[in-house]
Design goal:
Strand content: under 5%
Shape: globular
Largest sheet: none
Number of strands: 0
Radius of gyration: 12 Å
Distance between the termini: 33 Å
Oligomer: single chain
Number of domains: 1
Helix content: 55-70%
Low-confidence stretches: none
Number of helices: 3
Order of helices and strands: HHH
């Protein structure tokens, strides 16, 4: 069941569109930073 949920939610393009339209062109590092905003480096 967990694998099914992860598969359905694994489309990074759709997730980036939900964040912001310009997020589609983010690198993986930039996308990670925009998703996990509460994490500081």
């Amino acid at each position: 069941m967990l694998l099914t949920v992860l598969y359905e939610c694994s489309d990074l393009h759709k997730y980036a569109l939900r964040l912001a339209p310009e997020a589609v062109n983010f690198t993986l590092a930039e996308l990670e930073a925009s998703i996990w905003t509460f994490v500081t480096k």
